[in-house]
User: Fold these one by one.
Assistant:
Number 1:
Amino acid sequence: MKLNKNFANLQESYLFSKIAKKVNSFTAENPNKKIIRLGIGDVTLPLVPVVIAAMQEAVAEMGDAKTFKGYGPEQGYSFLKENIQKYYKSRNINIVEREIFVSDGTKSDLGNILDLFDKENIALIPDPVYPVYVDTNRMAGRKIIFANATQENTFLPLPDRKVKADIIYLCSPNNPTGATYSKEQLKEWVEYALANHAIILYDAAYECFIQGKEIPRSIYEIEGAKECAIELCSFSKIAGFTGTRCAYIIVPEALIFDGMSCNKMWLRRQSTKSNGVSYIVQKGAAAVFTAAGEKQVQQNIAYYMENAKILANCMDALDIWYTGGQHSPYIWLKCPKFKDSWKFFDYLLEKANIVGTPGDGFGKNGKGYFRLTAFGDRENILEAVARLKKLVHNI
Amino acid sequence: MKLNKNFANLQESYLFSKIAKKVNSFTAENPNKKIIRLGIGDVTLPLVPVVIAAMQEAVAEMGDAKTFKGYGPEQGYSFLKENIQKYYKSRNINIVEREIFVSDGTKSDLGNILDLFDKENIALIPDPVYPVYVDTNRMAGRKIIFANATQENTFLPLPDRKVKADIIYLCSPNNPTGATYSKEQLKEWVEYALANHAIILYDAAYECFIQGKEIPRSIYEIEGAKECAIELCSFSKIAGFTGTRCAYIIVPEALIFDGMSCNKMWLRRQSTKSNGVSYIVQKGAAAVFTAAGEKQVQQNIAYYMENAKILANCMDALDIWYTGGQHSPYIWLKCPKFKDSWKFFDYLLEKANIVGTPGDGFGKNGKGYFRLTAFGDRENILEAVARLKKLVHNI
């Protein structure tokens, strides 16, 4: 029996264990110093009341033979899919229920969707990037080309028509940079994909943080996108479901390559390799779309975005270059004082007792940059800002 | 962009839609006839009280900032893994926590574990079989050889030493036949796998139905199995989690091929393509292992097994050949009167208003055989038996 040798090509991921080691070491030597963590990509506010109530009700149903639910439809219950459909409709995008697939997470969908694509395709992936895009393709043995996101293009790479790619990864608002594409920029990508008979995997996991109506919240706001793009979104950020696990992936029926339908293939893949998402969790997710649910999750989103604004204002005050913070809980800043992100990490930890994430962890273009996140406690955010101002003024 | 052409080699799965069509048709023409469904592979009893209580508590925790859980460890929380470890220990099997991976289902694990294996491996799959084993390998473009399960070998195929295989599927107690391997028979398979440097995927999803101590409940009861077998098990049948979604897969650290560790690869695969199982669901699963939980789930298992016994006794009384029913909720019978399973299906539906599953749906060796399941309501089981006796006596 031969194992998949592509796994030997994966790099060890040391980013978070390296961070943990440094933080543990510092804490051991400085037990009285209060560390503020601005590196986490996890939510901190609890699930909202209407979601809790819906799940309590669903749990009770599961304890009663009359309302007990066994195997559900692998693609998700209609009561949830129709709400997702309405969510798109409210933004003038028409998706049919058959194009919506409920899952336990965008991370799962990102990994599993690759089952549909031949190994010989070339993946075009931004750098810096959420490492999952890279690793999932390396596991399949696929060739990867990187699209450089740099300060010069404000971390929003555009298509290079000299480059041929088959699977294009776009994430907007971006993790880790928080940068967001404009409608015109996405139009260029859709045109490029159509011209190359390529597919776009559009990660919209952070769309809920977008303010106003200018910045697109879905790739399907661009004409032609249904013929070339799959969109992934999640309840993790909009409703704090990082530990509850629910997401959705849109696979349009218009997505056809060599006469084969991606939608039919995904339906088959999920019917074969999944038994769907917990009924209880789907009931919780559906509650997000009620009037009360929308109000409650928007309060949490506003809380995080106010944190982001406070961090962004701090960057402005300190004249530090950054992206993000406006339509994203992530701030991606150019390290002051140091060219090396890890040196800045150490400096920030030792002098200000703040933990962030060095940009190196996201790719070569992350060197010299740093990610701070706005998911934490308001008081901690304010204190962190005070410490940053003191620190940087003394540089 | 090229799609995965292996999907074109999948057969359309018409089994359950064909059954549904016939049943709907019959119901439309015979609205007053009470149909008894003995075809379902789904549980019918609700989740037990102690699981419900645990999940209510977990839901409440998720609504409170002090106890809220965000991202959990992808392999599952220790509070659940240590319980699974103890479950094995109680049967004298030593597994370390690192070898246990919690997932949302055996169906997912069966599909996803194949990421670890090269495409060029030969899969050895029983016939008749749970169709997922076949389809997941066809999607990967893998060559499949079938191990014939027939009445001659009481649907318990043993290794053919002339046949070379790399990935061996065993399911015991079996779906669809309910047949169970003895320790001696499993020993032959382990020896075969070790001699062939092959891997066994041991589907133990129905182990909870085994009565007594003779029949093995884990492949690891066989010496040498840790060097050649991965075991999959689920909360679906033991605790009725078909709609709640929780399972586990054991990947021993001793499982090494060409110097590569399957355990390390699976850890990497799941860390990259999954964010773990809902905290709420894991809390429910852990409750199964409490004293109260064990008592309550055993009551449900006993209920199903009493149903199975009633069905099995009926087969005995009618002198119909069958396997299963003793350590499994499935009865796999040789169709009386008809050589064609679908003709027997129609006959059973029209004359006795009972729905079962024709063996054809599980492979060529299923022709002429039929599956009945014991998950239904006791009264319906008793009534079904009365109707069967009347029907078959009149043949």
Note: The longest strand of chain A covers residues 122-127.
Number 2:
Amino acid sequence: MGIIVQKFGGSSVANAERVNHVARIITDTYKMGHDVVVVVSAQGDTTDDLIEKAGEINPKASKREMDALLSAGELMSAALLAMAIEKQGFPVVSLSGWQAGFVTDSNHGGARIRRIEKERVENELAKHNIVIVAGFQGLNRYDDVTTLGRGGSDTSAVALAAVLHADRCQIYTDVDGVYTADPRLVKNARKLDEITYDEMLELASLGAQVLHNRSVEMAKKYNVKMEVLSSLEKKSGTEVKEVVKVEKMLIRGVARDNDVARISVVGVPDVPGIAFKIFSLLAARKINVDIILQSIGRDGTKDISFTVSRMHAGQAMALLEEVRESLRYENLVCDDTISKLSIVGSGMIANPGVASKMFEALSEANINIQMISTSEIKISVLIDEADSTRALNAVHDAFLA
Amino acid sequence: MGIIVQKFGGSSVANAERVNHVARIITDTYKMGHDVVVVVSAQGDTTDDLIEKAGEINPKASKREMDALLSAGELMSAALLAMAIEKQGFPVVSLSGWQAGFVTDSNHGGARIRRIEKERVENELAKHNIVIVAGFQGLNRYDDVTTLGRGGSDTSAVALAAVLHADRCQIYTDVDGVYTADPRLVKNARKLDEITYDEMLELASLGAQVLHNRSVEMAKKYNVKMEVLSSLEKKSGTEVKEVVKVEKMLIRGVARDNDVARISVVGVPDVPGIAFKIFSLLAARKINVDIILQSIGRDGTKDISFTVSRMHAGQAMALLEEVRESLRYENLVCDDTISKLSIVGSGMIANPGVASKMFEALSEANINIQMISTSEIKISVLIDEADSTRALNAVHDAFLA
């Protein structure tokens, strides 16, 4: 039997009852003969409560001290989970991020794992201990505690699975797997047994919110077999891996993202260097641009449109207003009532009919397409936000129902 | 200017307002040109809350995991206090116990400090940082987090002051110093400017509860000048040191301890080895015995009386009941409605009249003395608990008013 890494999020350990429930999942795995390493997040609202406490004292607290504060949340949940396992009569030890050997860079609040010194964890496994590791944290070269940022515990788990050469990395959440679409929005959504890393990455970045991108990227890089499954119900989840069984399914899922604003720079001179000017300007302010479309030049001018998250729309508009003189555009337009609808699937590369089938489904539902963007395994369209749930269902059912 | 170590207890940092207030005390000291190292306890009820959480999950949790859990409390308060100091515009860094170099033995829940590797703290001071250290915790040789037990943060502070050769170790509490008696009980109690380590030790063990004994013992051993002062009011406190100014005061303070039960083993054979049998029995069960009195033998028997804390009285009685046959005593009596009243002062060694003055004061107040015990700097009497507040005032005023 090999090593299994299990990760439990904050809601899975929110109170004593859930901690005991999670302890049973862990000891059941241990009883099957596996070595078990568990990564755990802070309980329920602990992190938010700590952020609020810090905000009362100093809203501009340094990131170093925020990390020192927030990392305590996972220490507490790891110790409590270990106590629950002790109560069930199994050998267990809780470890902080640094005790488990997580060495990170010094980017407080969003640190990257540099390496894991796995000696302590391996020693504990050799003593047949279940090992509970505080997720989301590590130590930099100056012996200061760092946190890994959003989705950090998933990343901790995948990184541990990689260095320990674990058989699999199980991510327990409050959903029971990855669905063809958000089941809260799409009646006919169904659970996938398998999905590739690339498909999962596209779905995660498209707002499926099951796994954090960094963890999936790392799993792909080190070929860690991930599994998304429910901490509430005992049933199989979704495996995330390099190659999945060939099925008739052309696409793996449909996702909607409402956090989209479209900015159009209308009537810029059709000369070289314009796109560079616009996007280097945005990059310098760390504004992430998603879809970019440039119209074909006509009458010596062209239009450049792109999407940003709604949070950044105002800042992007202000930046472009400032350079109106040098860019010599005619007009600047922002629309933040749009939605991005995307279909994802490795199968679509070999199937030219996928795009037209998507457009047909939208057309039949009388939904207007504002922009189209395609990649090898994804097709995204921008539509009116008001149409987005209807569009999600129409496209989903055309491919997946 | 030298190094000053300041320690703040849990109530001093219980909420954002108090954290900000404490931060001002610290930065005021820093502005005077001192190097400042601060030891802080967990906020308010944090430790009790964590103990309760653990109790819900596993009332018999291992001490190792309890330490892993409880130590998080001081990490959080240290980070929050650092944030408050950042807000006031001063350079600061918070350190966990292990970051500050606290190396302890492996006695989880009541660990002893073995040494402090002071390199990190000294480096931070060299960078002119205010250093906030999480009290009450350290790391054992297996890289596991330990806690120091009750009064642990005081001990952390004194130990740091000792290795850093600090000018003084200031213990901030919610009282403004050491009093001649508990001001809540004795109207005429007054604050002492100075007290010796030995006097403080006797007063602490007599229930004055200002400083924990371990910290005073350590201060005496390493000749650390301690100062007890208020975190609420800005005024001078009480200095604890080796030698104090000679005053006319014969005694330094009067203390009462109600957590006392007296057990009398009546009519044991007046032969060698009886006392050894009784007290080795109690020691084996880790029952601490305070005052011991043995009557003069008469008619071939004698009486042995001793006091224990009320918590241990039942257990001690049960143990002695078990050995009734072998001890061949006539009777076993327990009284847990008594109180211990003590006067403490280095001056009494050279003044034989002190004891009689104490007994006179009690006699005038018509208070019966049940037992008497004396040491070089202390006289304790056992009296009826119902008389204890009256006795405290009578004795206090005879010497100190």
Note: Chain A touches chain B through 37 residues (CB under 8 Å).
Number 3:
Amino acid sequence: MIAKKMEGLVNNNSAIRAMFEEGKRLAAIYGPENVYDFSLGNPNVPAPEALNQAIIDVINTVETTKIHGYMSNAGFEEVRKAVADSLNKRFDTNFTEANIIMTVGAAGGLNSILKALINPGDEVLTFAPYFLEYRAYVSNYDGVLVEVEPDTTTFQPNVEAFEKKITANTKAVIINNPNNPTGVVYSEETIKKIAAVMEAKQKEYGHDIYLISDEPYRELAYDGVFVPYLTKYYTNTIVGYSFSKSLSLPGDRIGYLVIPSEMEDYKNIFAAASIATRVLGFVNAPSLMQLAVARCLEEKTDIEAYNRNRELLYGSLKEYGFECIKPEGAFYLFVKTPMADEKVFIEAAKKHNILVVPGSSFACPGYVRLAYCVSYDTIKNSLPAFKELAEELGMCK
Amino acid sequence: MIAKKMEGLVNNNSAIRAMFEEGKRLAAIYGPENVYDFSLGNPNVPAPEALNQAIIDVINTVETTKIHGYMSNAGFEEVRKAVADSLNKRFDTNFTEANIIMTVGAAGGLNSILKALINPGDEVLTFAPYFLEYRAYVSNYDGVLVEVEPDTTTFQPNVEAFEKKITANTKAVIINNPNNPTGVVYSEETIKKIAAVMEAKQKEYGHDIYLISDEPYRELAYDGVFVPYLTKYYTNTIVGYSFSKSLSLPGDRIGYLVIPSEMEDYKNIFAAASIATRVLGFVNAPSLMQLAVARCLEEKTDIEAYNRNRELLYGSLKEYGFECIKPEGAFYLFVKTPMADEKVFIEAAKKHNILVVPGSSFACPGYVRLAYCVSYDTIKNSLPAFKELAEELGMCK
């Protein structure tokens, strides 16, 4: 007998599993090159050669008991210092190793900080559409995730709706910028408005409200768009970062939390997040990978590859009559379905061997998400299928 | 403001931190070679050269997008198959990849299976003395850890006391064999008795009771002692394993869960534990390390190094008049303190630059734990200090 809290998750997982099986079934019939799978956010751009070299260098030059040994739950001090220095250089901040906790990816970091902060019944706000795992993360600590409804004209956070949703029980707000699933980058103007609302609400309710910035896509921003660093706009900000996309190593599970010294109750929050890392069973971020990424902080993934995909897929879909906002970051397109029920669209797309994720998986039905972190050829080859689909659905202009 | 559940953990952590600082203070005054730190279970035997070579081989021969990419939350299928095959060969079991979930160390595995099973208020039994983190792990899911009092003559599980502690609310039992902190290996006879009690209680209460076997020290067993493989004695058994000690890579966070097909509700439990791995933020066990350990399943740490330490430290302490059981496994000695208040002993030991962990940290006051995973020289050099301590406390025979 599994835990009651898990029952819904297990049932829901079967649906995702079914889609995965469908992809395999289609690939077996038509050949994998004729199935256009836009469902997974698994980067197709390989990790930079410098990362593999850094791993080999660490093995060849660092003492083995250190490479593979325990360290403080927050991570190696020199790795944390290297991360802080790199942030200071890029964002003109003033962090030290005392502000950095190395984590098991961004997902591990988010869980650690939520465990550190959330009491049962506390409300955590986030802006739809959002990565639905947030709901599970908050529920792990018996918090309640509260959705702020989207502004579907721009997919910038809906600040008016946000203000109304904050209550005396609001403990934290999660922001994901650049955004999954829309690819939108929240503007400085939006961030300033959010910060102003939160400052006012902190005063009104007489307690701290934390802004948790989930930033796995920070480095994936196109056309030089500005991605604000949130600790500079709001004091009680915690940043959760992952190297998963910037260095294409999602499987290795490495990221960090930034907990600024200026925060209220900084000392206890830093201690609590470190201990949460331990008691949740992470113990520490993988040691070899800590040492390796510290040597690759200036490395970048091949963003131009994603940019080419973006231009081709966005341009073509618009031409065929699909409705979507041009993404400025991440590697997702969020496309409006021509009928209210996205499931009808998804079934129609499947008949053309196109696999996409429903918007309801991001609390935003009537849309589908396309992950364009696939090969350029996959996109090129998928275009006739998209065109046929558009014609079939009467979408062409 | 941190979460209420974290407050006790943060306060308690300061005490551990204080001991760590004390070690650094003593090392600064007397030189690190004159401080005998037996407080940490961080293996001093380096990882086998074959592991470092396996990492380099993986990097040189496997496609980069695979090495560092996402895979199923349960882990790479071929890694899980290799683990199952290795278990089958060694323990005459019948596992397949469908029984293995790769985890972020044993701590990650325990958290995933507890999240999968535990409802608020469920009781989880364990045998004192035990690794105190179990309390935090169970509390993460609002379960209640119930201690079974120790049999201090043998430190085998106290089966009579165990039987009385099982109630209608008992959902699981955690066993740690070979044991931290005693070094005792639970005998086949003990295991059979525990299994018989649990079978009877399952019938009596009409619901499943799961045996969770935490086995990071399985390979650290001396003198050919037999360490029973628990799935062979009790059907509803889940094994949590870690490569931390067998391959000396605790920092890399890699282990696995074994969930046998014969278990009641196997399918849901396997699914729930995989999903728990995802929603707790582990997502998956570190990918490069999965591929590397799969190539090292027949590798062993240098157990003879630990054995030499064991013989020297145990033999000498007995000679000086200390009371303890000769450990058959792991790398710990659990020593009875000559006065009821172990804190008095710990302070006296500190004056001789000896650092040890109080038994109360394992729910067994009146004892201290010595981790002998240190260099042979540290042990040799510490002996005069132990002798002086024994003389000072009037313990010599």
Note: The two ends of chain B are 55 Å apart (CA to CA).
Number 4:
Amino acid sequence: MTQLTSIHHINFVVKDLQASVCAYETTLGLTGFEYSELPERGVSTARLRFGGVWLVLVSPHNEDSVPGRHLKKYGEGFFLLSFGVDDLEEALSEFVERGTIPGSGIIRQGLFEWRVADLDTSAALGAMFHLTENATD
Amino acid sequence: MTQLTSIHHINFVVKDLQASVCAYETTLGLTGFEYSELPERGVSTARLRFGGVWLVLVSPHNEDSVPGRHLKKYGEGFFLLSFGVDDLEEALSEFVERGTIPGSGIIRQGLFEWRVADLDTSAALGAMFHLTENATD
């Protein structure tokens, strides 16, 4: 039983957003990235919908943020996977009831008007996951 | 223009396969993983189809393999993303024509009877990608 409904987006942390968008276009033929800023997270981003999943490139402005620290520690590459849920509050309640990884429990504004909540899964699963409400946007 | 048709699977490298499957079940409520061995790659694996994408846990038997080296260098977490293609030979030809990242160009047996080909994208894109033929399997 899970409240997860989809793979909503996959984030890749990159150093230079424009250069990375060009590289994705040139090397993989993936075109049509849309740009967006998320100053409260300290990142510039670009997204592309492909195969029912958003591929999101995230470029931190400095090292003083979660994506920035990840970039510094691991270099460019996969950052996190976000599962879609119908109702964020309900999904978080389920995680709390299960007694596992509710993360901070704080719902925050994500990229592109997405409402998101982090899950503290790095220790248990070795990868970062979070939740996004409204899996179709 | 791209030959890519889907996000076929996402691989996560893990230390202990059984423990990781349990952790995914417990923490995320994702159940129904199928196990499979791929001795020529030196890994044990488990996969789950979710949201139209295969989530695959890959546990290297030792450090003397691509997944093993990745685990040693970065620890557990995201390993690679594989795009689905209709025809692997045709897709590889396109990459060669584009003059970019044909990888080794070698088509090999992947997990679960999948035919795959690696793309040498780590330098250009900071993440590892490859191709899998027959996106619905």
Note: The mean pLDDT of chain B is 88.
